[in-house]
Design goal:
Layout: E1 5-9, H1 14-25, E2 29-36, H2 54-67, E3 71-75, H3 77-93, H4 100-119, E4 124-126, E5 131-135, E6 142-146, H5 155-158, H6 163-166, E7 169-170, H7 178-187, H8 209-217, E8 224-227, E9 233-237, E10 260-265, E11 270-274, E12 280-291, E13 301-306, E14 314-320, E15 326-335, E16 342-347, E17 350-361
Parallel strand pairs: 1-2, 1-4, 2-3, 4-7, 8-11
Antiparallel strand pairs: 5-6, 8-9, 10-11, 12-15, 12-17, 13-14, 13-16, 14-15, 16-17
Helix pairs in contact: 1-2, 1-7, 3-4
């Protein structure tokens, strides 16, 4: 039988390095590849990114050499700019709070990279994500599932992957803990066994979204009015793009009691602030859904739901809506549900579906 081939997405970190080693141990003919998605020239001189650096590429190359597998570097700067950075800037200017890691997974890591793998004659692409893929024996559909290490589980960021993509993806770390992964890397003598994980948005390592938007778009965003819940002007802001729902720090308002960003009007360039209790809502409408146990939602389903990555799952019911959209109604009001973010639904460790929040109701 012909040996299966796999292309490993190698970032230079410990997770993708161990994923390459484990895939090789499973008998696959492996090759490694790193995508250069942007250069650090887009950053201020005093900053460097947590990925895409020359050091990361050389770390990945070193591990590939140690494993005795070919190594490639793909230039993905144009699709990354178009599908991730441009989308990020447009979304903020439209008053949304995008999730660039989800967009990168959807359009780059599991689309652009997967197409490269298939062109090279590989049956699978492999990443170091912490998640699992199972196949339902009755329907034959691929089901995205949480990782065994729930502290590292990345299923929230992967709930944009469709059936065709899951058919060609391997997640070798899904059954392992981070400690076990580092131990394997140390045993194999990988130079990155103790390399720290990247935490930030790669193209905004300092977290200053407004500075990035000004630098990237070349625009000067106009200041405007802070409003209270009654519409009274209570201060001046730096531009509505600079604020996210639920934000408290950096508002520069002295109102006697803590206030938070509750709403934004991008056309009027106003930011409405109010008490914490004004941030709680039960219902959201989301679109751009990917479903796993079934091809489309046709009836209400009870589930556990997350409306942001660090949120603890909460009981909810999802209802079919018009035009392929769906309403998620939480049993209890949730804080700062934010348009632009992903909402992911679970049944135990199985992902039911994932979509993009478009509207927040009641």
């Amino acid at each position: 039988m012909e040996q299966k081939k796999a292309l490993i997405a190698m970032s230079g970190g410990v997770d993708s390095s161990v994923a390459a080693y484990l895939t090789q141990c499973q008998g696959y003919e492996c090759a490694g590849a790193t995508m250069r998605m942007f250069s650090n020239e887009i950053l201020p001189p005093e900053q460097s990114s947590t990925c895409c650096s020359l050091d990361d590429v050389e770390d990945a190359r070193s591990v590939a050499y140690r494993l005795g597998i070919p190594f490639h570097v793909f230039n993905a700067t144009v699709p990354f700019r178009q599908q991730v950075m441009d989308r990020f800037a447009r979304s903020y200017e439209a008053g949304l709070t995008p999730n660039p890691c989800v967009d990168c997974n959807r359009h780059l890591k599991f689309d652009h990279f997967l197409q490269k793998a298939l062109l090279l004659g590989c049956s699978h692409m492999v990443t170091g994500h912490y998640a699992r893929i199972r196949r339902d024996p009755e329907s034959g559909r691929f089901i995205l599932c949480k990782a065994r290490d729930t502290a590292k589980d990345q299923s929230y960021f992967l709930a944009c992957l469709d059936q065709e993509q899951l058919a060609h993806i391997l997640f070798p770390l899904g059954e392992l803990t981070k400690e076990e992964v580092r131990a394997i890397a140390a045993e194999q003598g990988f130079l990155n066994a103790r390399k720290r994980d990247s935490q930030d948005i790669c193209f905004i390592p300092d977290g200053d979204y407004l500075a990035f938007l000004k630098r990237y778009t070349g625009k000067a965003y106009a200041s405007g009015s802070f409003l209270d819940l009654e519409g009274n002007v209570v201060g001046t802001h730096q531009g509505a793009v600079a604020y996210t729902l639920g934000q408290r720090k950096g508002l520069g308002l002295a109102m006697g009691t803590p206030v938070y960003v509750c709403a934004k009007d991008m056309r009027a360039n106003t930011v409405t602030v109010g008490p914490n209790e004004a941030l709680f809502h039960r219902t959201l409408v989301a679109g751009n859904w990917v479903w796993y146990p079934f091809p489309a939602l046709t009836e209400p389903v009870r589930c556990m739901a997350k409306a942001r990555s660090r949120m603890t799952e909460q009981p909810a019911t999802v209802y079919p809506d018009t035009d392929g959209k769906a309403r998620v109604v939480f049993d209890e009001p949730q804080r700062a549900i934010t348009p632009g973010q992903a909402v992911v639904l679970y049944d135990g460790d199985r992902v039911i579906g994932g979509g993009t929040i478009e509207e927040v109701l009641e």
